[in-house]
Every structure is written in C-alpha cells, then in structure tokens.
Amino acid sequence: MKEFVKRFFISENGEINWVKLCETYPEFEKLKNVPQSPKWHAEGNAFIHTQNVYNEMLKVLLRENVTNDTTFYLSLLIALFHDVGKGNCIIEDGKCLSQGHEEKSVKIARKLTWDMPPQYKLFFYEAIRWHDFRYRFYELKPKRQYSEVKKLLGIYRRSGIRDGFIYKVDFLKVLEYIWEADINGSISEIKDDINQIKKDFRNMIDIICVDEKKIIYVLCGLPGSGKNYFIDKYFKEIDVISRDDIRIDLGIENGIGTEEQEKEVTKIEESMINDYIEQ
After folding, report:
1. How confident is the model at residue 163 (pLDDT cuts 50, 70, 90)?
2. By CB neighbour count within 10 A (0-12 exposed, 13-18 middle, 19+ buried), where does 256 fall?
3. Can you give the pLDDT at residue 131?
4. CA–CA separation, 81 vs 145, rounded Å?
5. How many whole angstroms separate alpha carbon 15 and alpha carbon 55?
6. What is the structure's pLDDT at 214?
7. Is a pLDDT exceeding 80 seen at residue 82?
8. Distance separating alpha carbons of residues 63 and 71, to the nearest angstrom
9. Residue 259 burial (C-beta neighbours within 10 Å; 0-12, 13-18, 19+)
10. pLDDT value at 23 more than 70
C-alpha cells in the first residue's frame, strides 16, 4: 500500500501534497466549490473539511502507534475519499444537499483506485460507505441498531480474508478512527462524544456476539477408543463433522488415506467447520 498511495501524493510519513492532488484529480478540486452548512461544518467548504479530516486521521494513527503499513495507508485513503462524492451533490440555496454522498464517494473511489490490490477493496469501499453511520445509529430504534451493526460485523468478518490472503487490519477499529477524525475535523454547534459513540457501538457488538455465540466441541482419541459411542450417548442431537465420514465420501478405504488424501480430508473438514460458524 505504501507504493500504491504515492499516486495520490501521499508520502511515506503520511503527509500529502494537496496542490498536486487537485491538479491531478479534479474530483478533489471540485470540493473547493462545495459550500457546507455552518451549523455542521463551520470550518468552510468540503475541501477544507477533507483536509481537516485527513490531518486528524494522521494524528489518530500516530497517537495509536499504528505501525502496520496496510492499516496506516488504508486509513489515510479512507479519510481522503470519505466526502469526495460531495462534489457531485446538488447545491441549493448555497448549501450542499449531501444525502447519498457516501455512495457517490464510493463510486469515485472505485474509479480512481480500480487497480488497488483486490484483497483491500472491500475494506476500503465499505469504510467510506459507513463513515457517517455514527449519525444514523442514534436515530434508529434498538432493533434497527442491532441489524445495522450486524451488517457491519459481516463486513468485518469478510474484509480480513481476500483471495486467500489474510491481513491484520481491524475494520471496526479503522471505522472508529474515521469517526473520530470526522468529528475532530468539523466545527459544528453539536460536538459528538467519540468515547460515548465507541462505547455504545462496542456494547451493541457484544450483544450481537453473545446472541450469535456457537459452541464447537472437539473430540480427539485413538482409533477404536470409543469416540463414536461417546457422541451417540452424549451429543446425539448436534451436528457432527467426522473425518471418517469424509473419508467414506471420498472413497478412501482402510481408515486412513495417503498423505495427499488426508490433506484433502483436512481441507473439506475445515470448510465444513467454517460453513457451520457462518450459518
């Protein structure tokens, strides 16, 4: 990601050349002509707000001592693109009608980052899409809060694995980073309490995780030691994933297969376990 972000004139330490950015990408230059409500954005136009949020994001990353390159540069890109869609919003009576700007921002991000490494795209686009969720969260009834945060958890679980590549980037943590940067990058009559937002958000996640909790029992033992008998006696009503059953399905005879066959058994076994967890 360090090399990828250079096209947006972001240096290794996170500093950005705003002049060259606007000269190269008119999508950001347009933000200078997007007025914002002084009630929510007294700092000025959408470009000033974008600069503020980007700088605040950099402060957050340094404060949190984020050393993972992927997390660091993805977070900066999210801050840079979070409101870029406002340049395509309607201006009425000197104000930007910004409803739906999140999707417009994602559309522009897709166009300008089409060749981003594929394993990062879901993470990047969804963080932009959900950067304003903290406002909607408190407007929703508890059931809707539950269902919306559950969607975010689904994105979180999917965003960590792409094309078989696992990377250590916490989607939910970065989402909190952009919320904090967005709050601190705005001058508004009402200042959100980021600590309270984080607390309420994480509490809802805890509730969902408890509701979704699954228990997996792992039974180990030598051949003929009575594993099947134990299952029939004590766990008759639950789903069972058995390597013996998988071997039978694969046509493996005499109990244990070859090294390659056993690798295939393990692959199927792990896939079945993952399918069960995601149900």
Report:
1. very low
2. middle
3. 86
4. 26
5. 8
6. 66
7. yes
8. 14
9. exposed
10. yes
Q: What are the distances in angstroms from CA 238 to CA 170, 232, 233, 242, 276?
A: 33, 10, 11, 12, 12
Q: Report the 3 state secondary structure along 82-114.
A: CCHHHHHCEEECCEEECCCHHHHHHHHHHHHCC
Element (H, E) at 119: helix 118-129
Return the number of other C-beta atoms located less than 10 Å from residue 33's C-beta: 12
User: Is the predicted pLDDT of residue 155 greater than 60, yes or no?
Assistant: yes
3-class state of residue 234 by DSSP: helix
- Residue type for 168, please? K
Report residue 154: phi and psi, to 5°: -65, -40
- How many CA atoms within 13 Å lie on the side-chain side of 264? 13
Residue with tokens 């060259």: 20
Q: What is the model's pLDDT at position 161?
A: 45
Contact between 131 and 178 under an 8 Å Cβ cutoff? The reply is: yes
Q: Let me know: does 106 contact 85? Beta carbons within 8 Å.
A: yes
Sorted by sequence, the CB contacts under 8 Å of residue 267 that are 6+ apart come out as none
Contacts of 43 (CB under 8 A, 6+ apart): 49, 52, 185, 186, 187
Taking only the tens place, the pLDDT of each residue in 225-265 is: 888 888 787 776 677 888 888 888 888 877 788 888 888 88
